[in-house]
Amino acid sequence: MRLQTGGLTCLVALLSLLEGTTAVKHADFKTCAQSGFCRRGRAFADQVSAAGPAWIPEYEVDSGTVKLSDGVLIATIWKAVSEQDGGRVELPLTVSLLKNNVARVQLDEARRQKGDIDLRNESKAKKQRYNQAEKWALVGGSNFDVRAKILDSDKGSTKVQYGFSDQQALIEHKPFKITFMRLGEVQAVFNERNLLNVEHWRPQREKKEGEEAAEDESTWWDETFGGNTDSKPRGPEAIGLDITFPGYEFVYGIPEHASSLSLKETRGGEGNYDEPYRLYNSDVFEYIVDSPMTLYGSIPFMQAQKSGYSVGVFWLNAAETWVDIVKSKKNPNTLSNEKRSTHTHWMSENGLLDVFFLPGPSAGHVYEQYSTLTGTTALPPAFSLGYHQCRWNYVSQDDVKDVDRNFDKFDMPYDVIWLDIEYTDGKKYFTWDPLTFGDPISMQEQLDKRDRKLVAIIDPHIKNEEGYEISKQMNDKGLAVKDKDGEKSYDGWCWPGSSHWIDAFNPAAANWWKGLFGLKTFPFATKNLHIWNDMNEPSVFNGPETTMPKDNIHHGDWEHRDVHNLYGMTFHNATYEGLLARLGKGNERRPFVLTRSFFAGSQRTAAMWTGDNQASWEHLAQAFPMILNQGISGMPFSGADVGGFFGNPSRELLTRWYQSGAFYPFFRGHAHIDAKRREPYLVEEPFRSIIRNALRLRYSLLPVWYTAFHRASLDGMPVIRPHFVMFPEDEAGFGIDDQFFIGDFGLLAKPIVKENANSVEIYLPDDEPYYDYFTYKVYKGKGYHTVPAPLDTIPLLMRGSGVIPRKDRHRRSSGLMKYDPYTLIINLNNQGMAGGTVFVDDGESFDYKTGAYIRKSFLFNGETIVCQDFDTPNEKVNAAIVKSMKDTRIEKMVFAGVSDKWVDKKKVVVKTEHKKWEADVVFTKGHDGKANVAVIRDPKVPITQNWTIEV
């Protein structure tokens, strides 16, 4: 790559990132012991635990202040402090009770609410605790249950009933504790272990000679790490709370970590971690697997699961956060079947204590409750579910055109080709290199001939160079993040060298950024161009922990420490809005934006990927647990770099990775600038054909993926689902994270992630038949089954009871498949029945929101298969979509698991509202463990109409 001249510091910073490709530099990132507030939080927990019953809690609800009105309970909590600090600190408590059984608990600091504090170092930072995370993360949460009522209240406690009348919260006053119950059963307890800790404001005092501090103040007033000193003008201000899930042994969520789906304990012991899970969006170069170390994004959502029940919590805080997890039994020495309880300890550097309790009771209810708060994933444009081809970097427009032609030459489908930073003129965004990309329009026009798209990278760091108009505008208008003095644009180092960062918290900055994507303002951009937002943690090469100093100042005088984990989301939101607006009002098309950094709510405007992985079997295996965790945490449009970003995969590894990638919701091949070229057509046979088949499998199943994403956009259900979601009673499957179900179709996948594997053990959670997708071999019986998996085979089963819609015509891109006919795979269960759905629209506009879609259900009862509108009467469907799809039909129906009675069946009767005709049937007798299969050939039924087929 070309390094920018601009000083030795820049050169050293860049080279330090590019040197070697072995492992993350742990010394660049804090451990809990090196993070002042985390160290204090853990020490406090140890102190409380060691004291046991002798511990004197500091927090008490003032019984005389408890009031409930219109679904909101308010009270005052008093924190006991030293006489030097006034004896007690007032903490306003708000408990919001919502109609859908969700409860929100907020705790603030009265003195800071009023701004009645002094800041050190003449700082311009806001005096209040950060209270605007909800502005960015939430779209709901105000549906207060006005019928909520206090059932019982005295000086010792207050019990309230809310939601569907089966939900109760018991607020104990001294010490403060909240117990959430459903039908009398305890679901979760806040502050059961008395780890509530709100570090109140206090002035910095000079110690008298010989005076010893009552507490460790070494990181209260400033904190140094890696040569950078954080000025901390407000002093110590951390918050902490323990949340216990009684009887819930499994917890999931809090991405992003390269760890297992089921979260591990973090206080040591065999197989456990010694460090808490950290949430602090960071550019972690070459991350390691099986680690609680922070990565690029943060979603502070946790789900707890036990047999038949699921609950969740959402910790709404954008500051650096650590989460400790331990599990225990009340009677550890007994031989009873008592389940372990999970105890979590949440610690954030600052901000409000703001926690939502999501009572379920099923996983689906939890996801719906969470998506009601933070929004669902956007229904993606259809092309984005196809295959994406990327590397750092395609060196010219001719290179791009050549790659495009070679995909066609080798008959491999793909939808999107990507440009990394080298396409720009000197790493200045919204420009093109005049030597290598002198005619970007011709490049985009060639792609458009096959209905393909281009994605270009645009990051939040803006090159600090005289004559660069974008930089001039941003700084002249005051739209960049400021340094700690709040006057000058913060200057740091990133790919361009000296850079400034857009402050998208500023509405004026976001609006300005939005305007840069207009087709008249972004040179040579077409509607075919979409955007990749990278480095938006934000990554700062010479900053503390490779990010921005915490005492930088954002719009509204909030410190960066207040908003760090939100920064990336504000940036990709602004990018999304720019792409949305570029064609003008009324002509909007669904944008595609990929982000590396994210927070709760990012799912509304962006997809994500797991960052800079490595070309190793360990990273291939790590991808699915990470992607599954993203899905259950509300952000299902996720994937991992196929082949690994760093390094050069073996042919076997690359092949297996494409077979896995075909089951990533976001499917992209990507590689580092130093990696060998590895476009899938470059590998020799037989690997090339095997990869081609994996790509074709993805494309044939695009109706499954699109329908699953449509459901996710409605109610937050993950697109790929772990076992505990689908079979919540089956505890044996709660820890499985290397196999999963896709949508509601009964597709069970377990791609190979181990070297030299020729078979795999697949766990079946019930007694229904499971049919091999390719051979129709039947696997039956709960437990593990050995499934053959030579290199050319993906272990993929179909559960009896599902109907799978697919398209079997091989095309060059998804857009060219739009009007192709469908095939239905109807997998019969033990009762000889099956059902499923399909969702169809134009794949690009927002017209589906006003009825321009087709959503059909298919139900086979053993004698008749019925197709009907799933949720909208046919006459109310937008006529335009029906007209455009009128010639799209179902060309084949495959029934797996039919009885021998079908052997003599030659014809079936097809009926629509006004017509009736016959279609041919072909029966194949199963052998060697394979199911009987019957095929209805070309029944000629359109996807737009309701119909029945009598068999």
Notable characteristics:
ten-stranded antiparallel beta sheet; ten-stranded mixed beta sheet; alpha+beta; 951 residues; globular; disordered N terminus
- Termini separation comes to 64 Å
| Radius of gyration computed on alpha carbons | 29 Å
Shape: globular
Oligomeric state of this protein: single chain
Number of helices: 17
Q: Which structural class do you get from the secondary structure elements?
A: alpha+beta
| Helical amount | 10-25%
Overall pLDDT score: 95
Uncertain residue segments:
1-21
Largest sheet: 10 strands, antiparallel
- As a percent range, the share of strand residues is 25-35%
Tally the beta strands.
Answer: 51
Structure description:
The longest helix has 16 residues, at about 35-50. This protein is about 20% helix and about 25% strand. The protein contains 17 helices and 51 strands. Helix 6 runs parallel beside helix 7, helix 9 (about 505-515) packs across helix 11 (about 565-580) and helix 13 packs parallel to helix 14. The strands form eight sheets. Strands 6, 7, 8, 9, 10, 11, 14, 16, 19 and 20 form a ten-stranded antiparallel beta sheet that branches. The protein has a ten-stranded mixed beta sheet with strand order 42-43-47-50-49-48-51-46-45-44. Strands 1, 2, 3, 4, 5, 15, 17, 18 and 21 form a nine-stranded antiparallel beta sheet that branches. By secondary structure, the chain is of the alpha+beta class.
